[in-house]
Specification:
Layout (H helix, E strand, L loop, with lengths): L6 E5 L5 E8 L2 E2 L4 E2 L6 E3 L5 E5 L2 E7 L4 E4 L10 E6 L4 E3 L2 E2 L1 E3 L15 E3 L2 E8 L13 H14 L4 H13 L2 H8 L3 E3 L35 H14 L4 E4 L11 H14 L4 E6 L4 H10 L3 E6 L4 H8 L6 H13 L3 E8 L7 H11 L5 E6 L4 H7 L11 H11 L4 E3 L15 H8 L1
Parallel strand pairs: 15-16, 16-17, 17-18, 18-19, 19-20, 20-21
Antiparallel strand pairs: 1-2, 1-9, 1-13, 3-4, 3-11, 5-14, 6-9, 7-8, 7-12, 10-14, 13-14
The structure holds iron/sulfur cluster.
Length: about 450
């Protein structure tokens, strides 16, 4: 007999996870707790993780009385704890977990916490796959092959500092872009910068002064152009339809290394027309962006938590720039016919509000080609504490957000990863177009 509803999943005092026999799964839309619709639930994607959230009292739905109730333990289980899922790359979460936080609870580390339930013999989550590209599906990474790739490239390029750094990322942080470089496929990283001109509340490489750790150690030594050129050309020689990208999780803001970046882009394009040279960035310095585009940069991925300047400033805490400069960088790229993606940090309750959708559409009207829907990795209550009070107002649902954008921008692409040239459609650069621009 199939289950009529998804049951709540909790953990006992020892962290053992189990499904509740009668209570139904509740999620939090950023404003209120609600039961996920069946259309919002999918099987927990392979490669996802489950977390037990310290000091968070789980709540679930008592279907008979139609009320939210605390999920209480007993002498065997002890005090119950909330369980959340961290969904695999390429999936956007639709609801946060439903819980109440104890006053002495620690802040949560930098992950995107998703509600999780149990239905028909498996874990289910309110989420949606937003990119079919398999490049970061966790089960596609054979670490023995990664190690072989590391050994071969380290032996062939012992003095290349960038390859040595990316080796650390592949083997220690398990960075998928770094691992793909050593596996000779898809997208490779070109980490360049140690400093940043923003201080994002959820920065994954610098949490000095916070009660929780960053996910990565910030790169300590800025890369040299010759090392990055060699790394990129190695990759594009093996993966002609590949992508090489500045701006990785382990670094600051690449635009603060304008000379290295300009030399690297020009150096790569002087050697090969293959693939895509991309910049992941906070796009804070439009004049540098323009120079890089003129030097041969093909695409930019602009990171933002919101298209509303007040919310952007509250999260990014920019130093020496403002949201309007980010918009100018977008315009500089589009004025040169380049490809622009938004690295849009989706947060149910903030991203799916009327005010946010209208602000986002004003940005899309400037010619954005692709919206990468990425889950914001942060303690949800910490995030809402730093945002203005009106940030959350009558959330419409993340599925409704995506549907409305699809309807208003039929040509707009959605995804999770930086596309290779073959997936850019007519918006993408061509070797001929690039040669003409260089002439
Ligand atoms: S822009 Fe990037 S590197 Fe800079 S503070 Fe934000 S997350 Fe960190």
């Amino acid at each position: 007999m199939p289950d009529r509803f998804a049951r709540a999943v909790v953990a006992d005092a020892q962290g053992r996870i189990f499904d509740h026999p009668t209570l139904a799964l509740l999620g939090w839309d950023g404003e209120a707790w609600r039961q996920p619709a069946d259309t919002e639930l999918i099987a927990l994607p392979k490669g996802s993780d489950l977390f037990v959230l310290p000091g968070r009292i789980p709540y679930a739905l008592d279907l008979r009385h139609q009320e939210a109730v605390e999920v209480e333990g007993d002498a065997d289980t002890g005090i119950l704890q909330t369980v959340a899922a961290f969904v695999a790359p390429a999936y956007a979460r639709l609801l946060h977990p439903a819980y109440d936080t104890r006053p002495d609870a620690p802040e949560l580390t930098l992950y995107a916490y998703t509600a999780v339930g149990w239905k028909n013999g498996r874990f289910v989550v309110p989420a949606v796959r937003v990119d079919a590209d398999p490049r970061q599906d966790p089960y596609r990474f054979d670490m023995r092959l990664v190690q072989t790739g590391v050994d071969l490239l380290r032996a062939a390029h012992p003095d290349n500092r960038a390859i040595a750094h990316v080796e650390h990322c592949a083997l220690v942080y398990h960075c998928r872009a770094a691992q793909n470089f050593f596996l000779g496929r898809w997208e490779a990283p070109m980490p360049a910068a140690t400093q940043c001109n923003a201080a994002c509340v959820g920065c994954i490489s610098d949490q000095s002064g916070s009660s929780f750790a960053a996910n990565h150690d910030r790169i300590q030594v800025a890369s040299r152009a010759q090392d990055l050129i060699e790394l990129a050309c190695l990759h594009l020689a093996r993966v002609p339809n590949g992508v090489v990208s500045f701006g990785q999780g382990c670094e600051g803001e690449p635009l603060l290394q304008p000379k290295v970046l300009e030399e690297t882009v020009a150096g790569i394009r002087a050697r090969t027309q293959a693939g895509i040279v991309n910049l992941n960035s906070n796009a804070s310095l439009p004049r540098i962006v323009a120079r890089l585009a003129d030097a041969g940069l093909d695409s930019i991925r602009i990171s933002l938590n919101s298209a509303r300047p007040a919310l952007y400033h509250a999260y990014y805490k920019p130093r020496g720039y403002e949201f309007r400069h980010v918009v100018q960088s977008l315009d500089e790229m589009k004025a040169r016919g380049k490809y622009v993606s938004l690295n849009y940090f989706v947060f149910p309750g903030v991203s799916d509000t009327r005010a946010e959708i209208e602000a986002l559409c004003a940005l899309l009207d400037r010619g954005v080609d692709l919206v990468q829907l990425r889950n914001l990795n942060i303690d949800p209550e910490l995030y809402l504490r730093v945002l203005p009070d009106d940030a959350v107002r009558e959330p419409l649902g993340v599925l409704a957000l995506i549907a409305e954008l699809r309807q208003r921008y039929p040509k707009l692409r959605f995804g999770y990863f930086n596309p290779p040239r073959t997936r850019m459609g007519r918006a993408g650069p061509t070797p001929q177009g690039r040669a003409a621009a260089a002439a």
